Structure formats: C-alpha cells, structure tokens
Amino acid sequence: MxxxxxxxxxxxxxxxxxxxxxxxxxxxxxxxxxxxxGWLLAVSRxxxxxxxxxxxxxxxxxxxxxETDTLWRWYSMTKPVTSVAAMMLYEEGAFQLTDPxxxxxxxxADLRVFRGGSDVKPVTEPVTEPVTIWHLLTHTAGxxxxxxxxxxxxxxxxxxxxxxxxxxxYDLARSVDAWAGVPLLFQPGTEWNYSLxxxxxxxxxxxxxxxxxxxxxxxxxxxxxxxxxxGFHIPAGTEERLASLYVPAPGGITHAKGLSQGPTEPxxxxxxxxxxxxxxxxxxxxxxxxxxxxxxxxxRLLGSRxxxxxxxxxxxxxxxxxxxxxxLFGEVPFEGTGFGLGFSVVEEPVALHGLASKGEYGWGGAxxxxxxxxxxxxxxxxFFTQLLPSSTYPIRxxxxxxxxxxxxx
Length: 409
Fold this sequence. Notes:
Pfam families: Beta-lactamase. GO terms for molecular function: hydrolase activity. InterPro entries: Beta-lactam-related (IPR001466), Beta-lactam/transpept-like (IPR012338), Diverse_Enzym_Activities (IPR050789). This is Serine hydrolase. This protein is α+β, with helices and mostly antiparallel strands. It has helices spanning 17-32, 79-91, 133-138, 152-159, 172-180, 197-209, 213-225, 280-291, 304-310, 321-324, 349-352, 395-405; strands spanning 38-45, 48-59, 64-65, 71-73, 112-117, 122-126, 246-249, 252-255, 277-279, 295-296, 299-300, 337-339, 344-346, 361-364, 370-374, 379-384. It has two domains: 10-80 and 212-405, Beta-lactamase, CATH 3.40.710.10; 85-209, Beta-lactamase (3-Layer(aba) Sandwich), CATH 3.40.710. The chain is built from twelve helices and 16 strands. Helix 2 (79-91) packs parallel to helix 6. It is globular, with a radius of gyration of 20 Å.
C-alpha cells in the first residue's frame, strides 16, 4: 500500500510545517509516558495529504511498529459508512426518511418505552410514534448500548448477551429482533442517546437492498472508492498488520485480553455500528469522498446536496447535544455540537470552547480513533490508535487545537 503518503508541501496549502510538527511531539509523549501503544496521524487539505506521521507500536509485546499499512479497528467510525450506505438507498427511492423501521424489520412494530421499575421488573408504555429511519440516523430512536451502564435498559441488553460483543450464534437479523424485545429509553424523537441505532440501520440496508451488509459495502462503497483492504474481517495473510488493543492499567496500559483477536473469517453478525477494520489509507479515501460532497477520484457515491443535508444539525430546534443528549461517552464534546445523519456537527465553536470551524463534522471510535472533515477549510484529519475506552484521554479536543493552530493562511 505504497500509495498513501504526503502529497503536497504544507506551506503551499496554508499550513506551517513547524507548527504541524507540534502534533507529533505532543502525541509522542503519550507513547513515551506509556499512555498509548502507538498512533498514526494524517492531515489533508484540498484533497492532498500535507502531514502523515506515526510513532510507537502496533503491538508493544512484539515490538512491531505502527506503519502506514497497519490495520485498525474502526469501531464507531463504521457508523458514517453505514449512514452513507443508507443515504445511497434513500437517493434511489428505497425509502423515505420518515418511513417506519417496521416496514423493513417487522419486530420494530410494537415497541415499548421504559417508564420505571428495574431491569428485572420494568414498567413500560407503548410508543407514541413509530421509530423511523430518520430516528436511526440521528440516534433519537430511544435505543442504547449495554456497555454504557447508565440505565436499567442497558442492564437488560447485557442480560441478553449484548455488551461489547454479542452472542456468538446471532446474526444481524436475530440481534435486531432481540433488541426490539427490550424497551426503549425514551419516546422516539424526544432525546438523543448514543446507541445500537446504526446497527439497526445496517439491517435496514440489507433488507432494502437485498444484499448482506458486507456485500453492499464491498460492491457499492469500498470497490468504487478503492478501499481495497477494509471489511468485517482481516484479509488472509495480514494478521500481523493488525494493531493490538489496549486498556488503561495502573501506571499505563495493558493488552485487552479477549478483545484483541481480529476476526479472520466473516463474522456472523455484521455490525454497521462498530464492525469494520482497515488501514488509514482506506478511511482517508472515504473522508475525501465526504469532503468532495459525495465524489472522489472520478467516483460519485452521493449527490452533493445529500452530503450537505447529512452534515447539517438535525436535532430539533437546532439544539446541541448538551441540551438534547444523554451525556455518557467521549466521542465528541457535547457543548456547541449538534448531530446530523451519521455525524456530529460543530454548530458553535465558541460554545465548544475549542478551536474549530462551524460546520466541521466527523466521528470517533471506541478505541480512541477519530476523523473529521472541515468543509470551511477544506481540511480532513484522522488519528488512529487502539485504546479502549475513547474517554480515557482528551486526545480529540487536543488534536483539534493542534491542527487549527497550524493553519496560518
């Protein structure tokens, strides 16, 4: 994969190279202090890479370094890919955003909402409106995650085998039906909560397209964009390129036992919420498609107006996540940040208390990865490492300031 490297002089594209180097020194300290195993960082402007650096190890025990072709678990950075897939089908007339999910997944027809009681004896009421595809795209469906450990409904999911993983014998269809048997956290559309919604959306993509999710991704997104090494499992012969997964430990980090084996065969459950693995090069190509408002390298996946629509704040009344969301995790700051169709969207940089452009959008993954697209500056940024959970360090807000301070045009 020798075609991923620096493509332009930083100075020609409005960056100060000396200031960009601050990023490397800053994140090298994380590794030297034993807080991260290793990382890869890429900054692009106007479609050309101006800064690409890496440091540390993809596997500490073996001493294998991070390299440009290292394979990373994307976790929730899978969600924008699934959201793009859904909007491709929307553009083809497969559904309206206001369509009930039950049109594609019958088990979603008679959902209940948690009102009180406990995870063992919940008190519930029927939904007042059906969960729609728009609710899934915006995380306003009332779904949750077992690993959040913030609500009795989370415990109900864990009791059914859904925390960081899912029951081994379940495929996506069976998992979605199991979630439909658990009450929603709130009435659809009344709050925002980070959730399994994008996994459900992946099942909608399967039913609406007649393709398994891995086939839809491969034929409609990955092959057209040249994302040749991304998928739900590791290509044969590339096992050693996969970065190992770590968790915090007293005085540093330790290997995340039980989660570190990457799948070498297609998994039974194809997770549109957190299932993809791939190299930074491939995610870079995906981000350039977004920056290109749906097109990159002669290939168009979405109409330009569709990408504009997806990357606007869809929360009711222009609310931010702080006022409309349940504050539970570290993928993005909540103040001044709205949510679109699959992406967080910076609405008010001043409220964010951090350097950013209005309209910047992106998302992060559970292993402390992040990407964003800044249409105002034509900048894209990616940071890859493998440390669970993403709330361990303020890597993302630090990175935003470090990128912005290097822009000097």
